[in-house]
Structure formats: C-alpha cells, structure tokens
Amino acid sequence: MKPYLSIVIPAYNEANNFRDGLLKPATDYLAKQKYPWEVIFVNDGSTDDTEKLLTAFCRANSDYQLLTIPHGGKAAAVTAGMLVAKGEIVLFTDFDQSTPLSQIEKFIESHENGSDIVIGDRGVMDKMNNTFFRRFRSWVFLTLVQLVLLPGIRDSQCGFKSFKQKYIKKIFSNLKVTNTGIVTGGYMGAFDVEALFLGRKLKCKIAQVAVEWNKVEGTRLNPVLEPIKMAIDVFKVRIFDILGKYDNLTNAVKA
Questions:
Q1: Which of 78, 97, 101, 98 is nearest to 29 (CA)?
Q2: What residues contact residue 6 under an 8 Å CB cut-off, 6+ apart?
Q3: What is the pLDDT along the chain (255 residues), one digit of tens a residue?
Q4: SS3 sequence, 32-46?
Q5: How far apart are CA 31 and CA 28, in angstroms?
Q6: What secondary structure, in 3-state letters, does the chain show?
Q7: CA distance 204 to 237
Q8: Closest by Cα among 123, 76, 97 to 17
Q9: Among 41, 56, 52, 47, which Cα is nearest to 13's?
Q10: How far is CA 36 from CA 3, 30, 87, 174, 222, in A?
C-alpha cells in the first residue's frame, strides 16, 4: 500500500544513539498509527556500526528501509531519502529525535489545511536549556537568513520539516549550493535554507508550526566554523539566484 507519510532519517555514526534507544519513542508512536507509513534511514557513509545495526533493524521491521550512500553530509543524505520516498507527505527529522515524532500530527493538520511545506519553529531564543552563546549564534544566523533570503521565516534550521510529494523532486533535485557531495565530518550546510528558498520560488505555501525541542548534546560539529560555513552558503544561494541558476524553477511556475 502506498504510504501516506514517509519519514526520512539521515544517519551518520549514530550507533551509540541507536543503542541508547533514542528511536524507541518514534517507533512506538508509529506502531499506533492507522495510516500507512514508511521510514527511510539514510546511512551517510558511517564509519561505526550504524549500517550493521540499521540493517538488522530493517530486516526485522518491514516498514523500515535502509539506504546507504557515500559520505556526503546531511544535505546529501536527506536529499537521497527524499527522492525515493513515496508518501503523500514526506518529513525529514533528526536521528536523535530532539523534536519528538509525535509533533507530526500538527504538520499533517497543516498540510490538510492547504500547506505545501511545514517547518518546525523551536522558539530557539526562549529555550532555557540553551547557552547564551548558542542563543546569540542562532539569532545572528537566523537574522542573516531573513535579511538575505527568507524574510518572515523565524527558524529555518529546525531539523523537522515536511513537504508535499509533488514539490519534492523540484526542490531537492535543484539544490545547487549545499548538496556538493564532497564533505568531511558531520558538516550539514545550510541546505534547509536553500530548500525553503526554492519552495518560495515555486510559490509553495509555507507554514511555521511550534514544536517541542530538547537539545541533544553532540561534538560532531565545530560551534564556530560550522555557522561561518553556513553563512557563506546563504550568500552563495543569493548569488546563484542573481546569476539565474534557479531560473528553471521560475519558468516552471510561469508555465
């Protein structure tokens, strides 16, 4: 049966998180749903036991599948999963489940009310479990994103976003800045920003929905260099747009 909801979960060296049971609340939630669904894990060239653990899990659970790609970063992993997902609604979410999967109920309601893209709004500036440095860093980056590309989008970086199927190929096949396929470590890039920017070029109705969010500590990303790289990506998207790199999308809308 064709799934109503597809869930894409990128995975890069997530063996410890898997063994710690971070996915259990999500799997328990899905088991209770009456609509058809699928989960697509995308193993992003992990160097630990992630592939082995997820392979065994998917063999034991038929609604879950594993896609393995060479290491290309979060943008490449999410893109690979989104492009093979079959659901009417496709969500990508983080392996650590910092936003609980149960929040999807708000997103489904928003889609049924006409939204094409729904993005989580964590209210990151108000989170008491965030340090001042993180809140300031987030404020600077999100302000930059609004000024340069996405006015009105409060939280472009929440790793909990859903898209209607008809827009997925148009958006994720046209990521030109952040899906390079050549990265080191856990680099994420500002692919969320580019995807939302392309959504706006396609005249998608984008809804922002408040979600629960619990910071899960990690050491994979450099807290200084990563935001700088992401800021550079934001300016690259603007430059690419000026140079006409996305004109095919604009022409498709006009047609």
A1: 101
A2: 37, 38, 39, 40, 85, 86, 87, 89, 90, 91
A3: 899 999 999 999 999 999 999 999 999 999 999 999 999 999 999 999 999 999 999 999 999 999 999 999 899 999 999 999 999 999 999 999 999 999 999 999 999 999 999 999 988 645 545 676 777 788 888 899 999 999 999 999 899 999 999 999 999 999 998 765 556 555 667 899 999 999 999 999 999 999 998 876 555 557 677 788 889 999 999 999 999 999 988 776 655
A4: CCCCCEEEEEEEECC
A5: 5
A6: CCCCEEEEEEECCCHHHHHCCCCHHHHHHHHCCCCCEEEEEEEECCCCCHHHHHHHHHHHCCCEEEEEECCCHHHHHHHHHHHHCCCCEEEEECCCCCCCHHHHHHHHHHHHCCCCEEEEECCHHHCCCCCHHHHHHHHHHHHHHHHHCCCCCCCCCCCEEEEEHHHHHHHHCCCCCCCCCCCCCCCCCCHHHHHHHHHHHCCCCEEEEECCCCCCCCCCCCCCHHHHHHHHHHHHHHHHHHCCCCHHHHHHHHC
A7: 18
A8: 97
A9: 47
A10: 5, 10, 9, 29, 39
Distance, in Å, from the CA atom of 209 to the CA atom of 191, rounded to the nearest integer, reads: 19
Q: Which residue has the tokens 């994420």?
A: 188
Give CA–CA dist 178/76, Å, rounded: 8
According to DSSP, the residues that pair with 24 across neighbouring strands are none
C-alpha separations of 44 from 21, 77, 141, 187, 244 in Å: 20, 6, 26, 11, 31
